[in-house]
Design goal:
Layout: E1 6-12, E2 15-20, E3 24-26, E4 29-32, E5 38-41, E6 46-52, H1 54-70, H2 75-88, E7 97-102, E8 107-110, E9 116-117, E10 124-128, H3 131-144, H4 149-163, E11 172-175
Antiparallel strand pairs: 1-2, 1-10, 2-11, 3-4, 5-6, 6-7, 7-8, 8-9
Helix pairs in contact: 1-2, 3-4
């Protein structure tokens, strides 16, 4: 698991939402509190967020964007192509980053070992040191509260920020 971030993705009600906190740490020091770890890809049709080494994550974003363009924005085909590329390249297998990518139809976690994981429920995924807190909150809110997807992500990340020392409440959210 990677310290210093929390990213939460949610797909439901015809919407896709991703959110992330803004904290970047180095050891036990906060280097930055307002970092952006989420972005839109492929003409604003795909959402993505990262946890882990920032330099590695930017490399992953660039590579994944290239595959998305090659696959004309087909997220499913892109994650499979990305995984194949990742497993063939010894340099890539050393990257210390994870990503969540999603659109209105699919949500996936891309691990630092080239794995592609679709969440068990098919709609909620979290990564980073506060990921377990965020996903627990999101599952409970999804089951018991009547919140819009954006509100659900916001509230879940706020709860993670209350519990995880590597997560702050400077939350950014993107929605499709």
């Amino acid at each position: 698991m990677f310290d210093a971030t929390t990213i939460l993705g949610y797909k439901g009600d015809g919407k896709a939402v991703i959110g992330g906190d803004g904290q970047v740490t180095f050891g036990d020091t906060v280097l930055k509190s307002n970092a952006t770890k989420i972005r839109t890809l492929y003409e604003g049709k795909i959402l993505a967020g990262f946890a882990g080494s920032t330099a590695d994550a930017f490399n992953l974003f660039d590579m994944f964007e290239g595959i998305l363009a090659e696959k004309r924005g087909d997220l499913f085909k892109s994650v499979i192509g990305f995984s194949k590329m990742w497993r063939k390249d010894k340099q890539l297998r050393q990257l210390e980053a994870m990503m969540i990518v999603l659109n209105k139809e699919h949500i996936f976690i891309l691990s630092g070992t080239g794995d592609v994981v679709e969440p068990q429920d098919g709609k909620i995924a979290a990564i980073g040191s506060g990921g377990n807190y965020a996903i627990s909150a999101a599952r409970a809110l999804d089951k018991h509260a009547n919140l819009e997807p954006k509100e659900l992500v916001q509230e879940s990340l706020e709860i993670a920020g209350d519990l995880c020392i590597y997560t702050n409440k400077n939350i950014k959210i993107l929605e499709l």
